[in-house]
C-alpha cells in the first residue's frame, strides 16, 4: 500500500489507517470491505466503521453488487466501495515558459477539464504570476459553469528550486524575484489550499500514478525542457532533500570552471545541454537568422546538424556526451531500477539517442547484472499539469480524512 507522502499527521493510528484505506480504494478503483481488511491487516469491524464514516462524509460510495466484482463464482456478490468522483474537484497547473496549462480531475482521478492560457510574460513578478493563475482558474471553472470556489485544492508545478513542504520558491526561472513564499501569496488570493512543488517532482508523481513507473518503487525521472530537471523516487516516496531542494540534476557539475550557467555558477550540466546553451554556442559561428524566436533558431541548428554541418554536429555531440555522463553519474549513485527520460519536444531527440544510452552504459559501474532500464516518455504540458493535480488530490484527501478524525 502506497503511503500518502505528506501524511505526517498526528501520529494517530486510526488517522493513518483512514489514509491507507482511501489510498487503497483509489488504487483499486473498486474494492470490497473484506479485501480492504485483508490488504491493510486491520480488523473487518474497524474497516466497516472507518468506511461508514467516509460514506457519511460523502467521500466513498457503495457500488451495487451486480456492478461490483463477485466472489469468483461462489456465494453472493459482495458490495464494493469506490471513491465518489464528485466529492472533490481539484486543479493542477504547470507553469511553462510561455503558457499555463491546467488539468482538473475529480476525486476518482478522472480528467474533467483541460485549459491553456498564455502567460503575460515568460518571467513574472510574483503578484503577476498569482494574477495569471487566478485568471486561468476563473476561465477554466467558468467553462464548467462553476465559480473558482468549486475547486477544493490547487497543485502548482514550476521549474526551479522549490521547498514543497514550506511552499517556498528559492529560485525559479519563471519568477523575477528570489525567495518568494508563493504558496502563501496564492492562498491569500484564492479560496482553496495550494500545493506547490518542483515540476519534475510532479512528473515523477504522474509517472508513478499513471505513467511508466506504476508498480516501480525506485526510479528516477529526468525531464528535458528549457532546463534539465529530475525527480527521485526512493521506496515509493519522492525524495526532496533536507531543504526541499534536492535533485538539482541540471546543476550538477560536469566540468571544472566550465560554461556559465543561468544559476550563476560554472560547469553545470544545464550550461551544456539546455536550449540557451546550444544557442550560445551556435551564435559563435553559425549564422542563424536574427529576428527569429529561440525555438526557430534551435530548429535551424538541429536542421544543420542533420545535414551534417560539422559545427552544428559538434555542438549537438558535445551536449549529448555531457548528458550521457550526467546520466551515468546518476545511475552510479542511485542504482535505480528504472530511469525515465521525459520531455516534450522532438527537438531534444538527440538526447534520447542510442549513442547517448550506449555512452551512459559504458560509464556505469559494470557488474554481472543488467543495468537499469531506460524508458523514453514524451508527453506534453497537460500531463505535467495532471501530475500537479494528482499532488493536490493527495493533499486534499489528507485534509478531508483528517477532518474525519476531528469529527469522529
Ligand atoms: Zn547551474
Task: Annotate the secondary structure layout.
Elements: H1 13-28, E1 31-32, H2 33-40, H3 44-56, E2 60-63, E3 80-83, E4 89-95, E5 99-106, E6 111-118, H4 126-143, E7 153-158, E8 161-163, E9 168-171, H5 182-189, E10 194-198, H6 199-210, E11 219-224, E12 228-234, E13 237-239, H7 270-273, H8 275-285, H9 294-306, H10 310-334, E14 338-343, H11 354-362, E15 373-378, H12 381-407
Parallel strand pairs: 4-7, 7-10, 11-14, 14-15
Antiparallel strand pairs: 1-3, 2-3, 4-5, 5-6, 8-9, 11-12, 12-13
Helix pairs in contact: 1-12, 2-3, 4-5, 6-12, 8-9, 8-10, 9-10, 10-11
What is shown here, in short?
The protein has 408 residues and is an alpha/beta fold. The protein has helices spanning 13-28, 33-40, 44-56, 126-143, 182-189, 199-210, 270-273, 275-285, 294-306, 310-334, 354-362, 381-407; strands spanning 31-32, 60-63, 80-83, 89-95, 99-106, 111-118, 153-158, 161-163, 168-171, 194-198, 219-224, 228-234, 237-239, 338-343, 373-378. Strand 4 (89-95) and strand 5 (99-106) form a beta hairpin.
